[in-house]
Design brief:
Structural class: mainly alpha
Distance between the termini: 67 Å
Number of domains: 2
Radius of gyration: 27 Å
Shape: elongated
Number of strands: 4
Strand content: 5-15%
Oligomer: single chain
Bound molecules: zinc ion
Helix content: 40-55%
Largest sheet: 2 strands, antiparallel
Length: about 170
């Protein structure tokens, strides 16, 4: 994924100055813009893909809408990590994750996004195609496994008969 552009980072850092106490000094705005570029590298959370722009926009909006006063860069960093890198935080600051698997939207690819080395037609497949193009398909093709064979009822019956044969013979039934 391409890095967050510095122009966007600057404009987002500048918008943070709407928070009471956030420095309007150009040096401070520059420093925050550099932080945004450094932190926002793109992420996949659950089934949602976040571009660096998505991450930076979320962070700045969240801070502006929930902070009544600016505290420090460390708190902005913590806000970012709570959302995007909870595993990097100390245990007591981790976001509670109930670990519930989201329901599967696409039964063709099971929400993996690829089927037999091709992108699926579903939302996940389209998003992955837009992001990774041919790069991902090369790996996907290497990793794909042959589909398990469907077992016929006749084969099941045969296997059952083989299983029961010795005991039936012992009883004198077969
Ligand atoms: Zn699909």
């Amino acid at each position: 994924m391409a890095d967050l552009s510095f122009d966007l980072a600057i404009s987002l850092a500048r918008s943070l100055t709407t928070i009471k106490g956030c420095s309007r000094f150009e040096d401070a705005i520059n420093a925050t813009a550099h932080d945004l570029v450094r932190w926002c590298k793109g992420a996949v959370i659950g089934r949602q893909i976040w571009s660096p722009e998505d991450q930076a926009l979320w962070l700045v909006t969240e801070a502006r809408e929930t902070w009544s006063e600016w505290t420090c860069t460390a708190d902005l960093r913590t806000l970012f990590r709570k959302k995007f890198e909870p595993q990097q935080l100390a245990p007591e600051r981790k976001v509670f994750d109930p670990g519930v698997k989201p329901p599967i939207d696409c039964h063709r690819c099971e929400d993996v996004g690829t089927v037999d080395g091709q992108y699926c037609h579903c939302v996940m497949g389209r998003e992955m195609k837009a992001l990774w193009g041919d790069k991902l398909l090369v790996t996907a093709r290497v990793k794909s496994f042959p589909k398990p064979r469907v077992i016929t009822p006749a084969e099941i019956e045969q296997a059952e008969r083989r299983f029961h044969q010795p005991s039936l013979q012992k009883l004198g039934v077969a």
